Fold:
Amino acid sequence: MNDYEADEYFPDFDGEYDSKGRPIRHTHKRSSRKTVRKLPQTTPVLSDFSDDATAWVPSYAAHLDPRHHERQWLIESLSSFYRDNVIFDVIRQVKSGKEANVYCCEAHPATGVELIAAKLYRPRILRTLKNDAIYKAGRMLRGEDGKELKGRREKLALQQKSKFGQHLDMVWWIGNEYAIQQKLHLSGANVPKPIGHNGNAVLMEYIGDARLAAPTLSDVTLSSDEAIRLFKITMDNIRIMLDNHLVHGDLSAFNILYWAGNISIIDFPQVVNARTNPNAMNLLQRDIKRVCDYFARFGVKSDPILITRSLWEPYMGN
Structure:
């Protein structure tokens, strides 16, 4: 077992469901458990089930050792989306990172799409985020219900970085990503369409096809004409974000996907509010410089400082 201990993924879930098909997490003795039922036989089977026939096991997880923490973490994180007819199977892992893994999922026919990308955050995401105070400045804390946190207990837990405080922090990072992606998609930005959010999982439109996931711009060689066109599209998206009082904060060629001649911007947990975060302008300038540096490789000439001013000054004036 590595740094991500298995009991952090599913500390109290043993594969049982209540009458509504929800996982039961036991915090009391077995003798006091309520009667539970197994999933009905009419429930569609994706690949196989565990020995007690109560836990969904998708195709990708079926190939993993049953004792492997990733298998159990994947099932725990995505089983609710399976029961809700959002995803039908997990086909493969697309990306593995310190903060999260991304999986390609076969969508349920009811969704109207073929493939869905599932981004699963690790329990210890906050340990891998560097200088997160820069992004937290001026933020409005919200709980799992989406409401602003005003209680003294919550604020104290966050300050002391207790286990409960770390949980609240993780909830904020993940919920923030989904809410921002929703807002930007509705505003016409080039972002994957958000599909669902639950616990440590964010589901969104899959960019790519059944054979290949969309590469990032960092792995793509562009022609001069295409580079100019995509540079303009990227700057338009930065402007759309700012129009919505948002600065990506970590934008680069590594989190811009390229597919079928277009781009999709991803990774939004560290987005900051341009109205309340004192670091917003500096983060905006850093985003723009990284983008300009990438496109300069293909002959696109630009001045990141001038571009930043041309966006920031009118925004502040308004």
Remarks:
- The first strand starts at residue 13 and ends at 17.
- Residues 1-17, 20-54 have pLDDT under 50 and may be disordered.
- Residues 65 and 71 are 7 Å apart (CA to CA).
